Backbone:
């Protein structure tokens, strides 16, 4: 079936540090890939998406590239701020137009001033 | 434009009871999906409704059901509550106008606690 794997454990880093969160997926066909962010006490917000191989999604300084050859969609940000502290989820849908999201377990990111 | 709203925000029930949660999508959105979020299982897809019809269904027992009204508002119902049903229930809406991946917008969720 379709699944998403995120690296284990929380990520703690200092302000202005470089952030990478790994995401790999298993899916048949041509899934669409997403990163969602969840702030404390809130629902999920779409951070960025990519719908085909080699697409790069970007938003608010975050970037991720759809790599079909490595089945990956790693999230990166060059210089994090305290306000980036949140839980980040990688997700996929099986195909274009399908709304059924399969999520990874999520990574808690804590940015220390 | 108002976002996705969910009511109630918090709910406490006891085992064996039933519960109904409500979701109002963004105006004009026709698709509503429901997700369960727990610390152990993470985010899991429950079902999706589009134009009052269930279009997708996740792997949950029949105690979990839903429906969508003609104004796209949706409700989900859980009967015979179990302790393991304690979770944050998230609703998401999208335009879903056909053929391409819409952005799904999530509500703040309903926190259900089963005692």
Residues:
């Amino acid at each position: 079936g379709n699944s998403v794997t995120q690296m284990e454990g929380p990520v703690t880093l200092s302000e202005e540090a470089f952030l990478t969160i790994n995401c790999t997926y298993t899916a048949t066909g041509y899934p669409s890939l997403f990163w969602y962010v969840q702030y404390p006490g809130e629902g999920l917000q779409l951070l960025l998406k990519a719908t085909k191989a080699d697409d790069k999604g970007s938003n608010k300084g975050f970037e991720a590239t759809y790599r079909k050859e490595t089945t990956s969609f790693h999230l990166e940000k060059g210089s994090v701020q305290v306000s980036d502290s949140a839980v980040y989820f990688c997700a996929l849908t099986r195909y274009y137009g399908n709304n059924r999201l399969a999520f990874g377990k999520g990574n808690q990111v804590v940015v220390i001033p | 434009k108002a976002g996705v709203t969910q009511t109630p925000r918090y709910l406490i029930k006891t085992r064996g009871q039933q519960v109904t949660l409500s979701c109002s999508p963004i105006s004009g959105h026709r698709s509503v999906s429901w997700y369960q979020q727990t610390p152990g299982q993470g985010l899991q897809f429950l079902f999706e409704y589009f134009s009052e019809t269930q279009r997708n269904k996740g792997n949950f027992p029949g105690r979990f059901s839903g429906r969508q009204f003609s104004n796209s508002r949706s409700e989900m119902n859980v009967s015979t509550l179990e302790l393991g049903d304690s979770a944050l229930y998230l609703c998401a809406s999208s335009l879903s106008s056909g053929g391409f991946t819409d952005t799904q917008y999530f509500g703040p969720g309903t926190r259900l606690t089963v005692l």
